[in-house]
Design goal:
There is one protein chain. With 341 residues, the chain is of the alpha/beta class. Helices cover 33% and strands 20% of the residues. It has helices spanning 2-14, 20-23, 28-32, 34-52, 78-91, 120-123, 125-134, 144-154, 258-267, 300-306, 325-340, and strands spanning 65-69, 96-100, 112-113, 138-140, 159-163, 175-181, 209-213, 221-225, 228-231, 238-240, 248-253, 271-276, 296-299, 314-317, 320-323. The strands form 2 sheets. A 9-stranded mixed sheet has the order 3-4-2-5-1-6-7-8-15, sandwiched between helices. A 6-stranded mixed sheet has the order 10-9-14-13-11-12. The longest helix has 19 residues, at 34-52. The chain is globular. The protein starts with a helix and ends with a helix.
């Protein structure tokens, strides 16, 4: 993917420090990269206009597509929001489905249906998690048109949620929902590679709904809720997080913003030895060689990749989100408009 290629190139040039360190402040490294940022923005703008002028071919699905994405590199809480939106749609009696890039998946051919037999290594961790939590049809692959066509060949659905894809302009969309991390914001405000933005902040003015992860209750926002931890290898065993107060644990997170997971655990009074991995990290058993018997707590997204490791005293934290009344109202207005006119 071009965006990740750009990030990796910059990481190599800068050295050992992670590029994210420079994305959240005004600093000489960010300024030095501004000419590359200008070129990146120019190419993105040209590409966008080529689609708008129909010089590059677009595709319109026969059912409404709602894109749920962001303009930031890194985690904003998009996956739990998609899970919640699927549940909201199902409560109306409609049949939602999901398409996703399947980043990190190693399938030999694309697109792929996410089935009960699919592994996170094959189809990607986030699609696997979405399928498990929602029970909705999920298809993954880099070509969104092919994803939609395979989905509609095999499933009956009324509306499709696209996991990410705000910058995938080949796919026409009935509506766009952008997720913003209220605590991290937009960093230094620069686009790649000087900053964390895929597109300028002005892009948010063209979307149908901006949802703040951690925003104020009177905003279109949501908050993350976690009550318990589930045993990694035993479906029926669980513990309340509040009962783990004062315990020391190994906290493992391979997500876009690991700090949010660690802070959530610490808010319950849990003492964390933090192990942050790259987003979509391909775990190996040796990643958990901690030389002690302390409990291991990980995110649910990580758990779908580690279920076969047979780790002792390992747990994952399932999370749900609570949409604000404003967010719920605005989303159902969008749903009514795109699905019923």
């Amino acid at each position: 993917m071009p965006l990740y290629t750009a990030c990796n190139l910059v990481k190599w040039k800068i050295g050992l420090k992670r590029i994210e360190h420079y994305w959240y402040s005004q600093n000489p490294v960010a300024w030095l990269l501004l000419p590359v940022t200008g070129l990146f923005c120019l190419l993105s703008l040209i590409r966008k206009f080529l689609y708008r002028l129909h010089i590059l071919q677009t595709y319109t699905a026969p059912v409404p597509v709602i894109v749920v994405g962001n303009i930031n590199i890194g985690g904003t809480g998009k996956t739990p929001l998609i899970i919640e939106l699927c549940q909201q749609i199902k409560m109306t009696g409609m049949k939602p489905a999901v398409i996703s890039r399947g980043y990190g998946g190693q399938a030999k051919s694309w697109p792929q249906q996410v089935t009960q037999e699919s592994s996170a290594q094959q189809v990607g961790d986030e699609p696997r998690l979405i399928a498990l939590r929602t029970g909705c049809p999920v298809v993954v692959g880099p070509d969104r048109q092919a994803d939609v066509e395979l989905l509609l060949q095999n499933y009956d659905c009324d509306v499709i949620l696209s996991d990410d894809g705000m910058q995938h302009y080949k796919l026409n969309r009935a509506a766009e929902i952008a997720v913003v991390d209220a605590s991290r914001g937009f960093g230094n405000g620069f686009c790649l590679p000087s900053g964390p933005l895929r597109e300028p902040q002005g892009r948010l003015q063209s979307v149908d709904l901006v949802v703040q992860n951690g925003g104020q209750p009177d905003q279109a926002s949501f908050t993350i809720k976690a009550r318990q931890v589930n045993a990694l290898n035993t479906e029926t065993q669980c513990l309340l997080l509040e009962n783990m107060k004062g315990q020391q644990v190994h906290a493992v997170a391979g997500i876009g913003n690991p700090g949010r997971f660690f802070q959530m655990l610490e808010a319950f009074g849990i003492r964390c030895i933090c192990h942050a991995f790259d987003d979509h990290h391909a775990y190996q058993l040796q990643d958990f060689d901690f030389d002690d018997e302390l409990p291991i707590l990980m995110t649910e997204k990580d758990a779908v990749k580690c279920a076969n490791f047979k780790l002792n005293n390992a747990w994952y934290v399932p999370i749900d989100i609570q949409l604000s009344a404003t967010a719920q109202e605005q989303f159902h207005q969008i749903l009514q408009q795109v699905c019923h006119g």
